[in-house]
Amino acid sequence: MSTTDNLMEAVDLHKAYGPTPALDGAEFAIRAGEVVAVMGPSGSGKSTLLHCLAGIVRPDSGSVLYRGRDLTAMSDAERSALRRGEFGFVFQFGQLVPELTCVENVALPLRLNGTRRKEAEARASEWLARLEVGELAGKRPGEISGGQGQRVAVARALVTGPRVIFADEPTGALDSLNGERVMRLLTDAARDTDAAVVLVTHETRVAAYSDREVVVRDGKSRDMERVA
Amino acid sequence: MSIGHTLLGLLESGPRHGYDLKRAFDGKFGHDRPLHYGQVYSTMARLLKHGLVEVDGIEPGGGPERKRYAITEAGITDVEKWLAQPEKPEPYLQNTLYTKVVLALLTGRSAAGLLDTQRSEHLRLMRELTERKRHGDLADQLVCDHALFHLEADLRWLELTAARLDLLAAEVAE
Ligand SMILES: Nc1ncnc2c1ncn2[C@@H]1O[C@H](COP(=O)(O)OP(=O)(O)O)[C@@H](O)[C@H]1O
Ligand SMILES: [Mg+2]
């Protein structure tokens, strides 16, 4: 794999919390529009890898290149601008703002980027409809189900037109049927917008929505495409 | 799968010709394995002999596919009995994957590596089935889900085994 093909590439990442390493020489690469599953046992370092790739956590050593720019060399302000502009996030529990309605939640990333309210909420409504939860626009997160909340969270991740979507166990709290639907909607939307997806999951049926998988074990990652 | 019972069941809603039976079977249950005409006629011949179906009419032109079959009372009873009888669960005790894991440990090879390779292979098939679900109807989805859950079970077992490799290694070394 040459560097130029990759939208994002991480080399030799190390990260320790106290004495035990969470990442111990992990590598990762993803191309534009690709869905890559990050698999491995609990505690193996999957979330830490995702956090380093997304610029949420700074690795102790190693580099994370996004379109040729090294995230680890950026200032905090540059990194958060990059996160807001180019990345989208979905976590296991939607992490919606409880005081805001669903449409306000989805519009939030646009508002933070300086989009006017009316325009932001119009685009948010479109994404809610696309995720099949258009009717929830005026409801607050406390009034909707877990499956609905994850769809709202996916809409919020996609509303800014990100180049990379980071999803950490996005279906972890859902039953099979809802989980499948969320995966289907997430990967369809990513395909349509040519966004790459870093999909952390320990469930193989969820990983089956990916194009290929990377396995993390004891803080080391193994790209199964390169092995094959 | 019992082709005889399935064809009988398809006849319960009304008489059908041989070619129509084959088409209905392939559409609903054939998936990757459509019936051969030969299978249909040998099966129908057997069902006729046992009095579970009867010939209801023959279209002009000849050839066995032009026979129209109807289910008999005995046939309906047979379908009823088959549906009421639970299927024997697969015992799954003959397991090549288990053998491979143990042999890898015995010979000092990487059992974790074996697991990763196997997961990759399972995932390849699971991706195909998942893609097929994207485009298929509900029947297709149910059939693919059945396969997907079984493949997932294999992998869960492999993960669990990998997590207990140290214990297993100690035991097989004895
Ligand atoms: N914020 C943290 N503080 C301390 N230890 C952490 C923290 N985050 C992760 N770890 C540790 O790092 C290792 C990897 O964790 P994580 O990346 O969350 O794994 P996974 O997502 O694969 O379950 C674990 O041993 C975990 O306990
Ligand atoms: Mg995690």
What does this 3D model show about the protein?
The complex is a heterodimer of chains A (228) and B (174). Chain A has a domain at 1-83 and 201-228: P-loop containing nucleotide triphosphate hydrolases (Rossmann fold), CATH 3.40.50.300. Chain A is built from eight helices and ten strands. Chain A has helices spanning 46-53, 76-86, 102-112, 117-130, 146-158, 176-193, 204-207, 224-227; strands at residues 6-17, 20-31, 35-39, 61-66, 69-70, 87-90, 164-168, 196-200, 212-217, 220-223. In chain A, the strands form two sheets. A six-stranded mixed β-sheet of chain A has the order 6-7-8-3-9-10, with helices on both faces. Chain A has a four-stranded antiparallel β-sheet with strand order 2-1-4-5, covered by helices on one side. In chain A, β4 (61-66) and β5 form a beta hairpin. Chain A is globular and about 45 Å long. The mean pLDDT of chain A is 93. The mean pLDDT of chain B is 88. Helix content of chain B is 68%, strand content 7%. With 174 residues, chain B is mostly helical. In chain B, strands 1-3-2 form a three-stranded antiparallel β-sheet. Chain B has two domains: 3-84, Winged helix-like DNA-binding domain superfamily/Winged helix DNA-binding domain (Arc Repressor Mutant, subunit A); 96-173. Chain B has helices spanning 3-11, 18-30, 37-49, 73-84, 96-106, 111-135, 138-163, 165-173, and strands at residues 16-17, 53-58, 67-71. Classes of the chains: A alpha/beta (228), B mainly alpha (174). The interface between A and B is medium-sized, with 19 and 21 residues. Magnesium ion is lined by residues 46-47, 168 of chain A.
In short:
Chain A is α/β, with parallel strands linked by helices and 228 residues long.
